[in-house]
Design goal:
- The longest helix is centred in the first third of the chain and has 14 residues.
- The chain is 27% helix and 36% strand.
- The protein contains two helices and three strands; from the N terminus they run H-E-E-E-H.
- It has 67 residues and is an alpha+beta fold.
- Strands 1-2-3 form a three-stranded antiparallel beta sheet.
Length: 67
């Protein structure tokens, strides 16, 4: 287990691990398969994690519509 004093240190460590694995950011870990749905605030896409192969539904929310 790894413990962090604050969220900033956690995010920095996570980003460092991602870059070491060849990913620039969190979303680049996933390969988009198809769009599952579209709603008032955004889209839901089916994606597969590139390393584990596990499928996920990812909701993409428009920041502009949240304001």
């Amino acid at each position: 287990s790894v413990y962090f004093d604050n969220e900033k240190d956690l995010v920095k460590s996570h980003d460092t691990i991602l870059k070491a694995q060849g990913f620039e950011d969190r979303i680049s870990q996933y390969k988009v398969s198809m769009q599952l749905g579209k709603g008032a605030f955004g889209d839901v896409i089916l994606s597969k994690h590139k390393n584990s192969g596990i499928g996920y539904a990812i909701k993409i929310i428009s920041k502009a519509k949240l304001a």
